[in-house]
Specification:
mainly alpha, 9 helices, 2 domains, about 0% strand, elongated
């Protein structure tokens, strides 16, 4: 074998080795990138499911409930594309599509069920913060437009108000049960004031009427009458 042929073979082998190494590294990078994307999507899916499972039934607004279910549908669709042989993703996608359709239906007219403990109120408030973080992240990823984010932020603000009102009423009930009627009046009056500030459309009329009845009932008690507490002033 001539020297020229030997050199040519060596060069050809070196080029082939370099090409193999390049292709191998490229495929390895793609596998790692794909694995990172799958891990990130799985983590996000877990966060959204935690949100849905943690809030009390009927607590979320229709918009935010739809947002969470739509996000799960989008994530499941991406996972189906990345892992086409994984039947679990296909089953999840079909299930979340059904849930999304149910979430989009107008809710039956019913009175909101208030939170029944201060612990649940604290947990709900933390969940609202987590939900706001998730919505903001979706906006940064381009999965949510600015007007919709503003709408969700307003709905989160209203739900935060309801949590605060629930806390006021729970504290009022606790104070009243302990015979601390003036303190109960304070909490009832604060709840009344907070709702009144957001009642321009009359949405909280029934709840305000209930709180007013509680205040009038306490006003008739000797302890409150003797204290000279001005309920009208406290209500704002």
């Amino acid at each position: 074998m001539s020297t020229t042929i030997t050199i040519a073979l060596i060069i050809a082998l070196a080029v082939a080795f370099l090409a193999y190494a390049f292709v191998s590294q490229t495929l390895d990078r793609k596998r790692k990138q794909r694995a990172r994307i799958i891990t990130a999507l799985t983590s996000r899916s877990r966060d959204f499911k935690r949100m849905l499972n943690s809030f009390p039934p009927g607590f979320l607004s229709t918009g935010l409930n739809t947002f969470l279910h739509q996000s799960l549908v989008d994530i499941s669709r991406q996972l189906c594309e990345l892992e086409k042989t994984n039947n679990t993703h296909q089953e999840d996608l079909a299930l979340y599509r059904e849930y999304l359709e149910a979430a989009r239906r107008p809710p039956q007219a019913s009175r909101r069920t208030p939170l029944d403990s201060l612990q649940k109120a604290r947990e709900a408030r933390a969940l609202l913060q987590d939900l706001h973080t998730l919505a903001t992240q979706q906006r940064q990823k381009g999965a949510l437009d600015e007007p919709l984010l503003k709408q969700y932020e307003n709905e989160l603000r209203i739900m935060a108000l309801q949590i605060t009102v629930d806390e006021c009423l729970l504290n009022a009930h606790r104070a009243e049960s302990k015979g601390k009627l003036q303190l109960a009046v304070h909490h009832y009056a604060l709840a009344h004031k907070l709702l009144s500030q957001e009642n321009s459309d009359g949405h909280y009329g029934r709840q305000l009427a209930d709180i007013s009845q509680s205040l009038l009932r306490l006003q008739a008690s000797p302890e409150v009458r003797e204290s000279g507490l001005d309920l009208e002033q406290d209500q704002g």
